[in-house]
Design goal:
Strands 5, 6, 12, 13 and 14 form a five-stranded mixed beta sheet that branches. A four-stranded mixed beta sheet has the order 7-11-10-15. The protein has a three-stranded mixed beta sheet with strand order 19-18-20. The radius of gyration is 33 Å and the shape is globular. Helix content is 40%, strand content 8%.
Length: 1034
């Protein structure tokens, strides 16, 4: 409402909940509105996409009751949760927000705008437009109170039917109104504390008499006061003030029935579906309704507002969400249906994974069920294509088939669904008329810069609209240029060379160096290993950038010699490389050679793959870029996910919704980092970025490691999906460190699959998108889970690892393990043996005399607290109320030092304990710690200090060194272990932090728990400031 940015008035922009709510309400109100009424035309109609409205709704609900980053609550939100916007549909959230405003902002004369509002305060310096950060503390408890907010509460009571609230605030208003001429009651702008009573008000808030200042009458408040009186006394009806009936936004709404139309791409697919009892029309049989992909709708909306004469480019090309594609469109008397965006294989590889498509269909149906607000039912068009068949093409993929049968049952993903033909749904669907493309419009609107011929097989000539859509759909069909792989041939690069070597050599060719990052991920499929793998888990602690190696210091750091073919002058023989391309034994080898050619010669370099006179057909010669695109398609057909990610990185493919995904996360008050810590290698993203700039930033942070850059995009999109569908997963997270999340995912695979770091890293890069998303969800959920190897069908040609992820029960076992006799025998042996601790590296160290079964039992039963700390540290999960406790600690000391970085106590003078801005400051200090498990011990230590801060003592000392408390607790733990006769193995310390590995794996509670030792260490640290009558700590 105030549009003032950060409350310091220093020009720092921030997102305000009141602004988002008003924008959401306005978008809903002006959709399909003709600005010139009866005198308007197609060009004067406003078109609002429903996904943009729902985006505002999601952001608003994620913010409330908080108002912005620097304001934990704002009375301006009353205009959003009630009259005039009625923008919030959750009645419980409305009640919580209103309760927060009344409890924290209400006084005797009205409500404060927000906590520490300095406007017109007696301590405000009127000569400055801004405030110093430490100055805000001076305004606490003496903020001005505005009667205008009581007028909002009167109107809220009228619209909600709460007559007690209407009477209460009407009487309160009468006491603060000022009588003008002729006895007219006037609403003053605000009431301020007299300058001579500041100390009295500070020590006893809401006790002194205040002075009316500012405008009289305050026109804004006066108008709302008059409106409230007219409604309360019956001179106006609520419907006259709210003609769009927005006041019913929180009322009960009937369940939405999602209509799903299953179509077959061809008659062959239709016949296969019929064999399994699924009736479906082909795309040609639904005519005259034309079915098009979602990207075509994006192109159509580009023409909205386009004008050559006025040099207007029209609406930017943007992704159309599922709410937009679930309507039927009318364009020039022709009906159109559009398939959802997630089915489009045109841009990224998500749609190549059938399980991923089923998962996205599940999420989109649930989203439609909960978010659809338009008249009529949503209609989702789901075409079954050849890519959804089994690899031999003889049947429908089982996951697709089971999904179709669930849809026929009437319920799927918690949503009510109905399946039928598209023509059946025409009368019950929501229709949108795109009037800006009507026939009376200038057909130059549909002209492209490059005119192409439009072929039409029908009897009637095609119109301009048909030609325009045909041009959008037409793309050069891929021709077969790549020679088939030659089984049994020798691999192009020997087993001595890793993918890292190839990337390093190509980086040097381009005049740059590949940073010695520890994020060495593979790009080759697991079962097709012919050279050494890369290792994500081999992370030096701390993972700081290493200096350039000295010549001859280590073979690892020398320039790799890939033994590329050379000519007589010693230069690279590119014709020889092309000849090797014809003899490659695997798709991976073809990808390596094409990458070398791509870097050294460019994407447009012509390649004569088949040699003179051996081209498999007439047509233009192939280029390196086109061969890579063809290899991408072949890898997709074979489900070679590691190779697919490799080629996506070479071609710099970008997820179409990458920028939107980043904006979604940031608008939900989540910060992002890409790359591994620490900074500057780890790059922080706090504001939305354009797609190209964001893509370049990801590649820079990944050290030009193309596979990591692609995987970072993938994880970012999955996080955006979850923050939209399951925002509760992110409740205790502020900064999402994607590089660290990727590393923890590989660590989990190494631990669960009992494999080396190289194999785990390779398995991670070769996971299908569905498995990758599933693994990420289990990490975010905070629940214990296990990863198991599973079997593929004999006919499958995919070489990516087949795994399954299962939640663990209270015993720490998956279903497969619980049902095994071998597990029972292992448990019996474990009860009679001394277990060995898990180490932070995730690798089990053998114990003398211990069997393999014992080590397997230890891996499953022990190490859970180490894993939990590592997972929570990677995703920055903190306990509830953590930041408020840190604020109270700072209030009683001079600052907190973490790993050499100090959070000063002056922060509390600027920020209140509930501000996101304060939480960001805390995270900026904690995130300098690169080890996630050590970070979590620091968080636990701060929680203990928070308990001590709640004790009635005025001070806790100067700078509190939190890491010293942790190390003191570690010393106490080691002393106890030595007294119990523990051997050197149990006393082993982590080389980077000096913390005992066994302490990392200790539960918080118990006599040997981390909280016990941290409590002893914290009490010893602040002992001089504790009350003398405190009890002794046992």
């Amino acid at each position: 409402m105030w549009e003032r940015g950060d409350k310091t008035n220093q020009g720092i922009p921030e997102l305000n909940g009141s602004s988002v709510g008003m924008a959401k309400a306005a978008l809903e109100a002006i959709d399909e509105l003709d600005l010139f009424g009866a005198h308007g035309g197609p060009r004067s109609v406003i078109h609002v996409l429903p996904d943009e409205v729902e985006h505002c709704q999601a952001i608003l609900c994620s913010m409330l009751p908080r108002a912005s980053t620097s304001k934990e609550i704002d009375a301006g939100l009353l205009s959003v949760i009630s009259y005039p916007a009625f923008a919030v549909e959750d009645a419980e959230l409305v009640a919580i927000t209103k309760s927060e405003i009344i409890s924290k902002l209400q006084g005797r004369y009205g409500c404060c705008r927000f906590i520490r509002d300095g406007y017109r305060c007696p301590r405000e310096d009127p000569s400055r437009l801004h405030y110093d950060p430490a100055e805000l503390k001076l305004f606490e408890s003496i903020e001005c109170e505005w009667p205008v907010f009581w007028t909002y509460l009167v109107l809220d009571g009228i619209f909600s039917g709460d007559l007690v609230q209407v009477q209460e605030y009407s009487e309160a208003l009468e006491g603060v109104l000022i009588r003008g001429k002729n006895g007219v009651r006037l609403v003053p702008e605000l009431y301020a504390v007299p300058p001579d009573k500041i100390d009295e008000e500070t020590h006893a808030p809401h006790t002194v008499e205040r002075l009316a200042l500012g405008q009289l009458p305050h026109m804004w408040g006066q108008s709302l006061y008059i409106l409230g009186r007219l409604l309360a006394e019956g001179f106006l009806a609520p419907g006259e003030v709210d003609p769009l009936n927005r006041r019913f936004s929180t009322h009960f709404k009937p369940d939405v029935v999602v209509q799903v139309c299953v179509l077959a791409e061809s008659q062959e697919v239709q016949a296969l579906l019929r064999e399994h009892g699924v009736e479906a029309q082909t795309i040609s049989e639904v005519l005259p309704i034309r079915v098009l992909p979602a990207r075509i709708l994006s192109h159509i909306y580009v023409k909205l507002g386009y004008s050559k004469k006025l040099n207007l480019s029209g609406r930017p090309y943007r992704h159309i969400g599922v709410l937009g594609t679930s309507k039927l469109y009318r364009i020039r008397d022709q009906s159109y249906a559009f398939t959802p965006q997630f089915l489009d294989q045109h841009h990224f590889y998500f749609a190549l994974d059938n399980q991923m498509m089923v998962e996205m269909l599940r999420m989109e149906l649930a989203y439609l069920f909960s978010c659809w607000r338009m008249t009529g039912r949503p209609t989702l068009t789901f075409p079954i294509t050849r890519s959804m068949l089994t690899e031999d093409g003889d049947s429908v993929d089982p996951c697709i088939l089971s999904t179709l049968r669930k849809l026929q049952d009437g319920y799927f993903a918690g949503a009510r669904v109905q399946t039928a033909d598209l023509s059946t749904f025409q009368t019950t669907s929501f229709h949108t008329h795109l009037s800006f493309l009507d026939e009376e419009m200038d057909d130059s609107l549909l002209e492209d810069e490059e005119e192409e011929s439009c072929h039409h097989s029908g009897s009637s000539p095609p119109g301009p609209m048909d030609c325009y859509l045909t041009r959008l759909l037409c793309s050069s069909a891929p021709r077969s240029h790549l020679p088939p792989i030659q089984r049994g041939q020798h691999h192009v690069f020997s087993a001595e060379h890793t993918t890292r070597d190839i990337l390093s050599l190509m980086a040097e060719t381009q005049g740059r160096s590949l940073p010695p990052s520890s994020m060495y991920l593979p790009v080759g499929p697991v079962m097709n290993k012919h050279r050494k793998s890369l290792n994500l888990l081999h992370v030096p602690h701390p993972p700081l950038p290493l200096p350039p190696p000295h010549p001859g210091s280590s073979k690892q750091h020398t320039t790799p010699d890939l033994r590329l073919p050379t000519d007589s002058q010693g230069q690279t023989d590119f014709a020889g490389l092309v000849r090797q391309l014809r003899e490659c034994p695997s798709l991976q080898d073809q990808g390596d050679i094409l990458y070398v050619l791509y870097v050294m010669k460019g994407a447009d370099w012509p390649v004569d793959v088949w040699g003179p006179g051996q081209e498999p057909g007439p047509g233009p010669s192939s280029s390196v870029g086109s061969l890579l695109e063809e290899l991408y398609i072949q890898a997709g057909a074979c489900k070679e996910w590691g190779l697919i990610r490799y080629i996506s990185g070479i071609l710099r493919k970008r997820v179409e919704v990458l920028a939107e995904a980043c904006t979604d996360l940031i608008s939900h008050h989540k910060q992002l980092t890409v790359g591994l810590p620490p900074e500057p290698r780890e790059r922080v993203i706090t504001t939305p970025l354009p797609p190209e700039e964001l893509n370049n930033l990801i590649y820079e942070a990944s050290g030009e490691d193309i596979s990591i850059a692609v995987l970072t995009q993938e994880i970012l999109v999955y996080l955006a999906m979850y923050v939209r569908a399951q925002p509760a997963l992110f409740g205790d997270m502020l900064r999402l460190r994607i590089g660290l999340i990727i590393q923890v995912m590989a660590t989990e695979l190494a631990r669960s699959l009992h494999c080396s770091g190289e194999e785990a890293s390779e398995s991670l890069m070769s996971l299908s998108p569905f498995d990758m998303k599933n693994l990420l969800h289990h990490i975010l959920s905070g629940k214990e889970f296990g990863v198991e190897r599973s079997m593929r069908s004999v006919q499958s040609t995919a070489t990516s690892p087949a795994i399954s992820i299962r939640e663990l029960d209270h015993t720490g076992a998956t279903k497969t393990e619980r049902s095994g006799i071998r597990r029972l025998k292992t448990d019996i042996k474990q009860c009679c043996s001394s277990p060995a601790p898990s180490t932070p590296s995730g690798v089990l160290t053998p114990v003398d005399g211990a069997s393999g079964d014992l080590q397997h039992g230890w891996a499953e039963r022990q190490g859970q607290w180490l894993r939990r700390r590592r997972l929570d540290g990677a995703i920055n999960r903190v306990p509830a109320g953590f930041y408020q406790k840190v604020w109270r600690i700072l209030h009683k000391c001079h600052g907190l030092s973490v790993d050499g970085y100090v959070l000063p106590s002056s922060t509390t003078r600027e920020m209140t304990e509930g501000e996101i801005k304060f939480a960001v400051q805390v995270e900026s200090v904690l995130n300098h710690v690169p080890q996630p498990e050590y970070r979590q011990l620091l968080v636990e230590a701060l929680m203990v200090l928070g308990l001590l801060a709640d004790v009635e003592l005025p001070h806790m000392g100067g700078i509190i060194h939190v890491d010293r408390i942790v190390h003191a607790a570690n010393d106490l733990f080691l002393a106890d272990q030595k007294s119990q006769g523990a051997n050197e193995y149990f006393l082993e310390k982590d080389a980077a932090t000096g913390i005992c590995n066994f302490l990392y794996d200790s539960a918080p509670s118990g006599s040997y728990g981390t909280m016990t030792y941290l409590s002893k260490a914290a009490v010893g640290y602040v002992h001089d400031f504790l009350p003398t009558a405190s009890c002794l700590l046992q």
